[in-house]
Design a protein that fits this description.
Layout (H helix, E strand, L loop, with lengths): L2 H37 L9 E5 L7 E5 L43 H6 L9 E2 L3 E5 L2 E13 L9 E12 L5 E2 L4 E6 L4 E2 L1 E2 L11 E2 L3 E10 L8 E6 L7 E5 L7
Parallel strand pairs: 3-14
Antiparallel strand pairs: 1-2, 4-5, 5-6, 6-12, 7-11, 8-9, 8-13, 10-12, 13-14
Length: about 250
Amino acid sequence: MRSGDTQSSDSPTRFTRATKVGMLLAAAVLVSAGLAVSLTPQATDPGATSALTSPGSQGATTTQTSGPPTPTESASVGPGEVPVPTPTAPLATPSGDAAVPPASGDPNEEVRQANVEQPVAPPVAISENVVVVEGVEVKIVEIEAVQGEARGVGEVAGPAVRFKVVITNRTDKPISTDQALVNVNAGPEKAPTSPLSGPGATTLPATIDPATTASAVYVYSIPDEQRQNVQILFNFRVDVPIASFEGPVPKTGE
């Protein structure tokens, strides 16, 4: 065989292999270029969004939007992008103070009753009984001079008078004492006196059962020179007159 014939038969085989390798390399380059284009964010899109992680948060994501989409817009999500839900309208903020519902109960019953005009019943001697409402009687007992003890805010220890208020329920139903109040005035001008925490002061029970008696002990700061004319006011309820007990009370050492 001639050398020229051998060369002409081998050349087509080598050309065909080189062509195949070149085609494969070109296809790989085209595929890589296509993926790179599809993964590149569209920075020029006014409605595009990007998810950024705040440096100071742990996994918290902050969404930045260059232009808020309208409710009818639907943003397309490309490969590699984080889908962001369509924003909803924020809750309306009240223009003024919100109305506060009234409390279920008045914590300062004494202030409330002070704003209600109540008549004071004609005074009786301190030792007498008073019917404050049908079936309910009240009386003052065990009046004595003591050395008052100051335990509460604003109290001042000193000469004082201690007495017991006794309430008898002669009705066939329990009665409430949640509105019951005691005030004491003393001296010619009937000046208000101040309550003290002791010694031995107690409070009334919340209710008094039928055909039973309940009591409470009160201590008021009253100087000796004002004890000749003392007025003890017992306010059982805002819709009934205030019972008034008047007269002298023991002085220090008596």
